[in-house]
Amino acid sequence: MNAVTLTTPIALIGAPTDVGAGARGASMGPEALRVAGLQPALESHGLSVIDRGNLSGPPNPWQPPQGGYRHLDEVVAWNRAVHDAIHAELAQGHLPILLGGDHCLAMGSISAVARHCRAVGKKLRVLWLDAHADFNTSTLTPSGNLHGMPVACLCGFGPDELVYLGGEGPALRPDQVRQIGIRSVDPGEKRFVHEQGLEVYDMRYIDEMGMRHTMEQALAGLDADTHLHVSFDVDFLDPEIAPGVGTTVPGGPTYREAQLCMEMIADTGRLGSLDIVELNPALDVRNRTALLAVDLVESLFGKSTLMREHQVRRR
């Protein structure tokens, strides 16, 4: 049985903050996604969608890092709010979509998903679609920006306030994460990723093996007892098609590669929760990136370009 059915209510939860980022503007991401028609787009596929509006939290104080972390108190406050909201939706049998905001918010959403999976006895798989590994620590990065640290914190390498958001911690083991589209990793961060054994499908791998093979590998082993969480950083996409992000990195997936990625995730029927983060309308062109994000999210929920009844797959 698929995780997503026409009767599974989808809950949109906005988290309008850029408190973990190095550039301002991601706080406007939730409204840009709404303006781009996310709710009616999903409803057009027969899905039931509830918009819970925006969470509230402290403003961005725009201060330098202290003790290796920038805006730690504010990041903790926002992630607690996200955790509680996501966990509440999962407890009701809903599929939550977090509208970010910067990628530090995934600490709250994934901590909530991990807590839910522990409670119901499900396995958890996280697909991290991003240009960056986000596996920095306070000793590896001089910026202290926490949007570069969420995967590390979720795996236990960070301040206790973030590692134990879900009551138990860490939320993740490295072997539960598959990173796709990576192409910008700091040298120290790269060593740390290798030490921890993260499974990374970087752009070199995608260039050599193709997106189809990449996704087959990343999705291998999913079964009916697996909750699939997708954390979609919009800078995953090539900036030629998605300019509205604060940390553009050339050489990302093309439109067709991204569509195939999303369609293959949809084919599993295991999607249980989603983050859409780092959309920065201040850097966009006529909301072009938000419209593309909505298009790709439609594909995550079943919109397909497949015309043939029986697709021929090469061995």
Automatic annotation (TrEMBL):
The keyword Manganese applies. Pathway: Nitrogen metabolism; urea cycle; L-ornithine and urea from L-arginine: step 1/1. Its cofactor is Mn(2+). CDD domains: Arginase. Mn(2+) binds at residues 103, 130, 132, 134, 233, 235. Pfam families: Arginase (PF00491). GO terms for molecular function: arginase activity; manganese ion binding. Binds 2 manganese ions per subunit. GO terms for biological process: arginine metabolic process; urea cycle. It is an enzyme of class 3 (hydrolase). Signal peptide: none annotated. The keyword Lipid biosynthesis does not apply. Gene3D superfamilies: Ureohydrolase domain. It catalyses: L-arginine + H2O = urea + L-ornithine. Keywords: Arginine metabolism, Hydrolase, Manganese, Metal-binding. GO terms for cellular component: cytoplasm. Its EC number is 3.5.3.1. Belongs to the arginase family. This is Arginase.
